[in-house]
């Protein structure tokens, strides 16, 4: 597992996650940032959300974390639930994809995409 980059940030990204996100961003063909958040739902009560977004949609109260030429955005309400979370990526055939390690989660579902706090 790679080390999280710049641990003073509210959302931590491993080098593997950043590399994969940069590849996905290039495929989109335009300058985008990544919005990470939570919403109600999922097997454990809350589920993670993650999507590319145009930088012009960043709101004044959003937290913005710079990772070189890549930005991660999070709204303040979501950040209450995921502050200190580490986002990793695995290309394993079984169980691969983005993985969330959330220190605020009391319980996490088996798939790792939802949690309760």
TrEMBL record:
Lineage: Bacteria, Bacillati, Cyanobacteriota, Cyanophyceae, Leptolyngbyales
PANTHER family: IRON-SULFUR ASSEMBLY PROTEIN ISCA, CHLOROPLASTIC
Domain Core span(s) in chain numbering: 11-113
Name of the protein in question: Iron-sulfur cluster assembly accessory protein
UniProt-listed GO biological process terms: iron-sulfur cluster assembly
A GO molecular-function annotation: 2 iron, 2 sulfur cluster binding
NCBIfam families, sorted: iron-sulfur cluster assembly accessory protein
Similarity section: Belongs to the HesB/IscA family. Ycf83 subfamily.
PROSITE patterns assigned to the protein according to its UniProt record, in alphabetical order: HESB (PS01152)
Record organism: Romeriopsis navalis LEGE 11480
């Amino acid at each position: 597992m790679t080390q999280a980059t710049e641990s003073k940030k509210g959302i931590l990204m491993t080098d593997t996650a950043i590399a994969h996100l940069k590849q996905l961003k290039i495929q989109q063909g335009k300058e985008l940032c990544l919005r990470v958040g939570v919403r109600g739902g999922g097997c454990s009560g809350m589920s993670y959300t993650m999507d590319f977004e145009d930088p012009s949609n960043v709101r004044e109260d959003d937290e913005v974390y710079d990772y070189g030429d890549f930005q991660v955005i999070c709204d303040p309400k979501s950040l209450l639930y995921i502050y200190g979370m580490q986002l990793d990526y695995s290309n394993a055939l079984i169980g691969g994809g983005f993985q969330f390690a959330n220190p605020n989660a009391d319980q996490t579902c088996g798939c790792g995409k939802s949690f309760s706090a």
